[in-house]
Design a protein that fits this description.
The protein has helices spanning about 1-20, 30-35, 35-75, 80-135, 155-165, and strands at about 25, 140. With about 170 residues, it is mainly alpha-helical. Helix 2 (about 30-35) crosses helix 3 (about 35-75), helix 2 runs parallel beside helix 5 (about 155-165) and helix 3 (about 35-75) runs antiparallel to helix 4.
Length: about 170
């Protein structure tokens, strides 16, 4: 009976020793994508494209508003058929504008997705090497962590390693 207790205690101590060496950390991928040099370049590029698109959209919207106001001011002057004809033309222009705007926004989102994937492909071996060198057992995304010690956050270290690589992508 004493041998059973002895074996049980040895197994229990062995399991606790194994768990003591498990190193778990967490990482904030979104912060890396926003604060790293390459992530900032991507965000600036996307912002430039978005600003250009906003200017184009604003100009088109202003033109459509002017056309609408002009048409409404001519409502009593024009014949009913002519007014309806011009109104349908304007409605078609508005629909075309909305569809073009939607396509341009989707293209911008595709640019963001494609380039984010490229950054993540670059980031993956950096994280893997860091994990291997520091004998880390598990890396969890920060978004799934409710509470954790700050010293377990490896985000800043990974940002430093990513920035140190001086990688550039063509956007």
């Amino acid at each position: 009976m004493n041998k059973v207790y002895l074996i049980f205690i040895i197994l229990l101590l062995n399991l606790n020793a194994t768990n003591a060496y498990s190193k778990i950390v967490y990482i904030d991928i979104n912060l890396i994508l926003n604060k790293s040099k390459i992530g900032e370049k991507l965000n600036n590029h996307l912002q430039e494209i978005n600003n250009q698109n906003i200017q184009k959209f604003k100009k088109i919207e202003e033109d459509l508003i002017v056309k609408e106001e002009l048409l409404l001011s001519q409502k009593n002057i024009l014949e009913k058929k002519e007014f309806e004809k011009r109104l349908s033309v304007l409605s078609q222009e508005i629909q075309d504008y909305r569809s073009k705007k939607k396509v341009i926004i989707e293209e911008l989102n595709q640019i963001k997705i494609i380039n984010t994937k490229k950054i993540l492909e670059i980031l993956n071996p950096i994280i893997s090497n860091f994990v291997e060198k520091n004998e880390i057992s598990l890396v969890m995304p920060k978004k799934n962590i409710i509470v954790g010690k700050k010293k377990l956050d490896i985000t800043e270290k990974i940002i430093f390693l990513l920035n140190d690589k001086n990688i550039s992508l063509s956007f």
